Amino acid sequence: MATKFDVAAYSFRKKCPYVSKDLLHWFPGHMNKGLKQMQRKLKSVDCVIEVHDARIPFTGRNPIFTNTLTGAKPHILVLNKKDLTIRSLLPKIKDQLTSEGVQNVIFTNSKDQHCRGLKSLRPRLVDIIKNSNRYNRSEELDYSVMIIGVPNVGKSSLINMLRSRNMNIKHALPVGAVAGITRSVMTKIRINNDPKIFMLDTPGILEPSVSDIEMGLKLALCASLQDHLVGEEIIADYLLYWLNKHGSFKYVDFMGLEEPCDDINKVLVTGSIKLNRVRRTRDFDGRIREVPDVVEVARTMIRAFRTGELGKILLDIDLLKRDDRQENVLA
Ligand SMILES: Nc1nc2c(ncn2[C@@H]2O[C@H](COP(=O)(O)OP(=O)(O)OP(=O)(O)O)[C@@H](O)[C@H]2O)c(=O)[nH]1
Ligand SMILES: [Mg+2]
């Protein structure tokens, strides 16, 4: 069982692994171009929906959005992938965001047709737009909404799901588990008929420079950066650090360990046996030898976090301003 170990019995690292900021920086040409396209299109939208990952509600939102895109129009923050985080903490997250000035927060799972947050999004959107000053667009009967956010948070999936829910039309936009699937500002996609609501998909855009290493590592763990740019072993090491720090020990069984361990090399080597991830190499004397494929094991460990196999996790749990925030770390 994952909970049989007592976190107090171990002296785990207290500090986040050090990583060069260069590894956590990703601002390719399509992001720069996309941002400019988005700024140009802003005039013709009624509302901006910012999608972010519910595992990091207080971390990694792009400040460029706040400064240039969301200030000018009504704004809804959709915290997506709620299925991967701790359900009981959602109300506290919402309260904290509200106290920080984010008025409209909705939690969604864009892979679930029956998600309550998805159901509530359309009426909420219509309400917010109706009650807003539409400036140059007051004559328009159609509603136009821009979907923005950092890469891989589920922007395209959200549009697809709304479209198939409301109009019974199957998926229109490409989605994928790696960052950077949507590369340019797309044509408008209709997601509702009465009233006509159109959504504008956009490429995920990161901050041009990393302001905080742990924030960059959290974004990497949530796949907002491409894994190979950061390094799979580095991402796995941050994951291990986080899991140990928070007494979340499902990884112990998953990696075939006897007890929690804070050394990523040992974890990956042991994991290579449990997960059967070995590489064949030829020795200097010509003999074939099997060696642990640590990069592949790191990938498997990261994937297990991303699919929820290592537990439902709120990576920002330390940023929750509540005395009782530690009570539900283990889901
Ligand atoms: N578990 C879970 N996975 C989701 C959810 N929404 C999207 N995904 C997955 O997350 C990955 C990214 O989804 P996309 O819709 O391509 O994300 P995006 O924000 O459009 O990504 P970019 O276009 O690269 O910026 C895909 O593998 C989706 O299947 C969700 O609510 N829960
Ligand atoms: Mg996309």
UniProtKB/TrEMBL annotation:
It is a peripheral membrane protein. Its main location: mitochondrion. The keyword Transmembrane helix does not apply. GTP binds at residues 80-83, 109-110, 152-157, 204. Keywords: GTP-binding, Mitochondrion, Nucleotide-binding. GO terms for biological process: mitochondrial translation. InterPro entries: GTP-bd, GTP-bd_ortho_bundle_sf, GTPase_MTG1, P-loop_NTPase. It is found in: Mitochondrion inner membrane. Residues 145-223 form the G domain. GO terms for cellular component: mitochondrial inner membrane. GO terms for molecular function: GTP binding; GTPase activity. PANTHER family: MITOCHONDRIAL RIBOSOME-ASSOCIATED GTPASE 1. Belongs to the TRAFAC class YlqF/YawG GTPase family. MTG1 subfamily. Plays a role in the regulation of the mitochondrial ribosome assembly and of translational activity. Displays mitochondrial GTPase activity. This is Mitochondrial GTPase 1. It comes from Vanessa tameamea (Kamehameha butterfly). The gene is LOC113402823.
